[in-house]
Write a structure and sequence with these properties.
Elements: H1 2-10, E1 13-16, E2 24-27, H2 29-33, H3 35-46, E3 54-58, H4 61-73, E4 76-82, E5 90-97, E6 100-107, E7 116-124, H5 128-139, E8 143-153, E9 167-173
Parallel strand pairs: 3-4, 3-7, 7-8, 8-9
Antiparallel strand pairs: 1-2, 4-6, 5-6
Helix pairs in contact: 1-3, 3-4
């Protein structure tokens, strides 16, 4: 896992003052553009112990990762979308970001009772998106098998919002 963490970290570019002053955005585009590195990151996430029936990918960069993990694992994918993007009945959850608020949604029929869902997102920052996604998966009747992030901004203490959820970050910046 250390070599995967080093590989991922070597493909991240810091962009200061984006999307607003004081924020250092972690640009993952170089990782996504490198087929070998991207595949290793996907394989590391797909190797989640305990198994899962579906992957829930969080908009937007989480979609890229979740689709790869679902394909590599031979399971389906459920999109967790920004409010107003899904065409049928939804569950919604509003939460705080490090630079504002947002609302995410899933279809009310996204899961069957007993489905074990691996949530996949790119970054764990304040934990708002992650905890909102956990709430949505559980409200829709599924069980969270775990949640995996490419990287974690440990200094924002987002992991504290996840309680006892099995959370894995491939790279952590403190």
């Amino acid at each position: 896992m250390d070599s995967v963490a080093e590989l991922i970290a070597s493909h991240i570019i810091d962009v200061p003052d984006f999307p607003k002053p004081g924020i250092v955005f972690k640009d993952l585009s170089p990782l996504f553009a490198d087929g070998v590195a991207f595949r290793q990151a996907i394989d590391a996430i797909a190797d989640h112990p305990g198994g899962f029936d579906l992957v829930a990918g969080v908009e937007a960069r989480g979609f890229l990762l979740a689709a790869g993990v679902a394909y590599a694992s031979g399971v389906g994918l459920v999109p967790v979308r920004k409010a107003g993007k899904l065409p049928r009945a939804t569950h919604a959850e509003t939460y705080d970001l490090e630079y504002g608020t947002a609302t995410i949604e899933i279809h009310t029929d996204a899961f069957l009772p007993g489905h074990r869902v691996l949530i996949v997102d790119d970054v764990l920052a304040t934990g708002g998106t992650a905890s909102a996604t956990v709430a949505l998966v559980e409200r829709a009747g599924a069980t969270v098998a775990g949640i995996t992030f490419l990287l974690e901004l440990g200094f924002l203490h987002g992991r504290e919002k996840l309680g006892d959820i099995d959370a894995l970050s491939l790279v952590t910046f403190d």
